[in-house]
Amino acid sequence: MGGGVVMFGSGGLYISRRCCKIVSGLERRQVLEQVDKELSKGDERAALNLVRANPAALRCFGAARQIPQRLYTLDELRLNGIETASLLSPVDTTLTSIERSIQAAALLGGTAVWKLFDLTPQHIFFISLGLLFLWTLDAVCPFG
Q1: Nearest-angstrom CA–CA distance, 25 and 88
Q2: Structural contact between residues 79 and 43, judged by C-beta atoms closer than 8 angstroms
Q3: How far apart are CA 127 and CA 122, in angstroms?
Q4: What is the phi/psi pair of residue 7, to 5°?
Q5: Which of 29, 86, 104, 114 is the most buried (most CB within 10 A)?
Q6: Backbone angles phi, psi at 73, to 5 degrees
Q7: pTM
Q8: Is residue 13 classed as helix, strand or coil in its secondary structure?
Q9: Residue 94 region by backbone torsions, left for phi larger than 0, else alpha for psi between -120 and 50, else beta
């Protein structure tokens, strides 16, 4: 296989031997380990200099033919048996149920206070207006 094409996997990666210089596995491994050490230290410039100093060790890196990303339509996903709802973000219903329970408790508590203190409609209006102001203030203020 002097100038042929080598195929890896299920047909997704093709490398032409003509573009690659044969380098011993030990040398390639040493260069890769040095590059990995520099990157783990956070020194990207030194890692880039290592790659530039030893181009033969990493010559075929990135030489494979890239497969373009494909966007599927909803009809194609359904045809392949993929449930499109599973691709969406999960819905959290716990918070909604807690919020509804608190609202129901507040409504029942407000009714009990109204009957207990015998409040007039004007008092209820002003109390509701004050609570609405506090609720808005809580929603608008940071960390509220």
Answers
A1: 44
A2: no
A3: 9
A4: -115, 130
A5: 114
A6: -85, 165
A7: 0.34
A8: strand
A9: alpha
The predicted structure's pLDDT at residue 130: 94
The angle subtended at Cα 93 by Cα 89 and Cα 98, nearest 5°, is 145
Amino acid at 139: A
Place of tokens 């691709």: 87
For tokens 């040493």, the residue is 30
DSSP code, position 91: P
Tokens at 39, concatenated: 């990157």
User: What value does the CA radius of gyration of the chain take, rounded to a whole number of Å?
Assistant: 33
Look up residue 140 and give its amino acid.
Answer: V
Cα dist. 14→66, 70, 76 in Å?
A: 9, 19, 27
Residue whose tokens read 């490398």: 15
